[in-house]
Amino acid sequence: MNRPTAPWGQAGYSDIVAAARQDDDLTVEFANGDVVRVAPTRIGITDPEFDVESGEDGRLSVRIVFGDGSTRDVSWMQIRSATDPHFAQELRHRDAEQSRRIGLRLKALREDRNLSQRDLADLAGMTAPQLAKIEKGTSDLRVSTVQGLLRAMGARFGDIADPNALEVSRKTLRKRAELAGVSNDVWDRLTSLTPSGQLTERLSRAFGWRPAEITEGILTTPRLSAAVRFKARRSGQAHDSPILHLGFEVARCVRSAGRQPEHRKPPSNPAQIRAEAVDNSGRVTLPSLLTWMWNRGIPVVPLLGRGGFSAAVWCLEEEPIVVMKEARDLAVYWLFDLAHELGHISLGHVTEEAVVDIEAPEIHSSDDSEESAASSFALDLLLPNHRQLISAVRTQSRGSYLRFKFAVEDVATQGNVSAGLLGMVAAYELRDIGEDKDRWGSASNLARADGPGRPVAETIAAVFLPVNEMSEVDAALIRGAVLTGN
To answer: Considering just the CA atoms, what is the radius of gyration of the chain in Å?
Structure first.
């Protein structure tokens, strides 16, 4: 059943159509047909000599003209609250709610300035219990009191008057965002680049949180509107991750930016891509593959933030966009994962549904045929004769992890491939040589020669992304979550 609208929410309740003095009282007629009679003292008039005219606000007030020629305007709200007890109660409720919200905003400002209640109370010339009542909204507020507190904190009235002003401190909101799944690195980056008045809008766009929830400090990430196939080897509701939502929004920013090369479907044969993507050394490297993909109209966006997912291919306007979020810093891991995502695109795994790898892709996956196919594609692209290379590493290692690193270096030199990349694949494949920690330790040492992956991906993305031509909100997301080193 629909609840009836309160009288003050209906047309004509606030519109004054006539007003006159009747005996010693004031009689007012409203546009909804109500005629009310009010004693002058109920609206603050003590002089018995007065007359009535239309107010300066026309239908929203009446003007009281006194015998000495002075005047006072009385608003419709004063008249209604003096004659309608239900409306008077509504105003008291609104005043209490306003006091509560102002108190929360003052508390948020205080906490963001690392002031205790006692510290601020001393600065403002009041007691800590008085300030506690104000922050709880249980104390009547005077403008002078609010101004004194703002002055003590070096804040402006606009800091609490803005409809989007936070009613929880940034420090507290940061803790709640972390509990919701936002890592501190992406949170600190995004919020540090965002003015207070725009924070609600930016966070809402980035993580899908409703503005009212952000203002009140309640963070609930909605399900994605896009169709997604999750490639996960662990339980959990990845589709509710705010970082995944951020990845989707960043992809939308990139796709709407324009000014990128026209999309051309990549070949399904990794040998053909290799022939086009090799650098001057004859190898497919992270810079050469990134550049080839961007020029092919397949944007590759490096996203900041831990957790949520590892990599994704979004299909927007029937064109793919790769979002990389590799937790492992080294470039060889970025390269393999990028080739894996390209495999999903080239092999037709990405149609109307996005493909999201929750964890970093493995070289072999027996549980998911598409994952296995994409990893095989990556190996054929990056190490086309990887079986022979791995066999050579096994032979030269002679079953000893002490010889593993040198065997990888020698075979890589002879085969003109990256020792770091070959070491990673060999460490995974040759599980009978030494302990895992020994092989992977050697592989990581070899991979460090190629350096970290994110700076490479950011540098190339910066060449193709027209950030200065984007909307303010889109540009802020790209600068905050993608081009972090620029």
So the answer is: 33
In sequence order, the 6+-apart residues with CB closer than 8 A to the CB of 316 are: 251, 252, 255
Q: How far apart are CA 312 and CA 301, in angstroms?
A: 10
Across the chain, mean pLDDT equals 88
Identify which of 225, 268, 191, 384 has the alpha carbon closest to the alpha carbon of residue 183: 191
* Token pair recorded at residue 130: 């008085």
Pair 351, 302: CB distance under 8 Å: no
Rounded distance between C-alpha atoms, residue 457 and residue 463, angstroms? 10
Contact 156, 116 (CB under 8 A): no
Q: State both tokens at 370.
A: 């598409």
Shared-domain flag, residues 261 and 292: yes
- 211 with 72, same domain? no
Q: How many residues does the chain have?
A: 486
Q: 251 and 128: one domain? A: no
Residue 246 belongs to a domain: yes
**Structural domain boundaries enclosing 208:** 170-216
Residue 129 lies in a domain: yes
Residues 251 and 180 in one domain: no
Please indicate, yes or no, whether residues 346 and 362 belong to a single structural domain of this protein: yes
Least confident range of 230-239, 289-298, 308-317:
230-239
Q: What is the number of structural domains in the chain?
A: 5
Assess if residue 221 is contained within a domain.
Answer: no
Indicate the helix (H) or strand (E) that contains 66. strand 58-66
The CATH number of residue 152's host domain is 1.10.260.40
Q: Does residue 340 share a domain with residue 245?
A: yes
Average pLDDT over residues 370-383: 93
Spatial separation of the C-alpha atoms in residues 417 and 279, rounded to whole Å: 12
234 pLDDT above the threshold of 60:
no
Closest residue by Cα to residue 312 from 301, 304, 327? 301
Residue 471 within any structural domain of the chain = no
Mean pLDDT of 385-396: 93
Same domain, yes or no, for 151 and 37? no
**CA 246 – CA 309 distance, rounded (Å):** 11
Contact between 343 and 273 under an 8 Å Cβ cutoff? The reply is no
pLDDT in tens, 92-128: 888 888 888 888 889 989 998 999 999 999 999 999 9
